[in-house]
């Protein structure tokens, strides 16, 4: 049977541990339980005519776009923490389903949305509602997230921390980032390159191209690319897909602050989504899933009913809790989401390892 939403009344403190690559510290706990819904939870119905959200690369947007983006996060940060749409509570959703605040329904095993086939669709839905909330807050239904185009190794590509997130005092800024990784330092997608300061830009780029090729082109099956099966009552999953395990995780670890015990914000699940750059990072993950679907004809997603019928909970733009299904997220065009193309994929699609 598919994974379904947990019993929200049984929330426990989430556990936080040091990620690989930082000095070990004792585990701790944090309370990131979801705010209880104020109305009965309804099944989310996709609009028949979806609002179009065209997501652009963060390194290409203009000053007006950035100003609007900044405004949206300013408003989101200003909401009281009793509002599920506030940035803190948005981040807690990630914490709750990643750091084990809930058990699976009717089971003593933790509910976890990473390291399995749930990773891609859960994060797609998460972005979908996050984007709608931001759009609602600034009263611009067309508002669209940007994507951090870290796979793009072209000259002046997206492979640095996008400038729009680096202005101190802006609502898009987060001080808990690795200060050694500000532009023009290239981001690294290879876990084995993290922390290695002896690499030339040429080497980083070659390694990045190789990681992209291996994780998106070579990984041709849903088990490899999306991650493995995870069903109702299963123990916590541990076989994530290549996109999740390699470039996605590397960007989290690369961005989080090495001065923080648990690599906050981006380097730890419980805190990652407190940083607005998280949503730009995940837009790129989501975009690359859609790119993968098109490689070599059409690469198919999992078709197991336990995948298609898995359900999650989110808050909509009014702050009401809704229930969504994985199957409804498989076609981005039904969600109104598309990604503006830039030339940069070609470099890794055609990479010769
Ligand atoms: Cu839910 Cu990038 O992790």
From TrEMBL:
Keyword Oxidoreductase annotated: yes
- Annotated coiled-coil positions are none
Keyword Metal-binding attached: yes
- Residue span(s) of domain Tyrosinase copper-binding: 114-131, 275-286
**Requisite cofactors:** Cu(2+)
Q: What are the protein's UniProt keywords?
A: Copper, Disulfide bond, Metal-binding, Oxidoreductase, Thioether bond
Task: Give the transmembrane ranges.
Answer: none
Output the Gene Ontology terms for molecular function.
Answer: catechol oxidase activity; metal ion binding
Similarity section: Belongs to the tyrosinase family.
Can you name this protein? Tyrosinase copper-binding domain-containing protein
Gene source species: Ceratopteris richardii (Triangle waterfern)
């Amino acid at each position: 049977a598919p994974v379904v939403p947990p019993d929200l009344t049984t929330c426990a403190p989430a556990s936080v541990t040091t990620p690989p690559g930082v000095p070990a510290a004792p585990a701790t706990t944090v309370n990131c339980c979801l705010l209880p819904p104020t109305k009965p939870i309804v099944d989310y119905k996709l609009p028949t005519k979806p609002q179009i959200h065209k997501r652009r690369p963060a390194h290409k947007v203009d000053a007006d776009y950035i100003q609007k983006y900044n405004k949206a996060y300013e408003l989101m940060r200003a909401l009281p923490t009793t509002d599920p749409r506030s940035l803190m509570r948005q981040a807690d959703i990630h914490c709750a389903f990643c750091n084990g605040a809930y058990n699976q329904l009717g089971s003593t095993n933790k509910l976890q949305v990473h390291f399995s086939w749930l990773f891609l669709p859960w994060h797609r839905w998460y972005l979908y509602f996050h984007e709608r909330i931001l759009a609602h807050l600034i009263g611009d239904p067309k508002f669209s997230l940007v994507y951090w185009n870290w796979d793009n190794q072209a000259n002046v590509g997206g492979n640095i921390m996008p400038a729009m997130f680096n202005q101190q005092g802006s609502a898009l800024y987060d001080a808990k980032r690795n200060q050694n990784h500000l532009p023009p330092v290239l981001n690294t997608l290879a876990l084995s390159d993290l922390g290695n300061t002896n690499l030339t830009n040429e080497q980083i780029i070659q390694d990045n191209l190789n990681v992209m090729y291996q994780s998106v082109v070579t990984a041709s099956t849903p088990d490899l690319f999306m991650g493995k099966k995870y069903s109702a009552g299963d123990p916590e999953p541990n076989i994530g897909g290549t996109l999740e395990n390699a470039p996605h995780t590397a960007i989290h670890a690369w961005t989080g602050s090495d001065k923080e015990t648990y690599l906050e914000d981006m380097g730890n699940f419980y805190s990652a989504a407190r940083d607005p750059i998280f949503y730009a990072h995940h837009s790129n993950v989501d975009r690359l899933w859609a790119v993968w679907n098109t490689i070599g004809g059409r690469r198919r997603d999992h078709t197991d009913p336990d995948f298609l019928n898995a359900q999650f909970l989110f808050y909509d733009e009014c702050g009401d809790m809704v229930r969504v299904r994985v199957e409804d997220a498989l076609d981005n065009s039904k969600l109104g989401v598309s990604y503006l193309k830039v030339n940069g994929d070609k470099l890794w699609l055609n990479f010769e390892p």
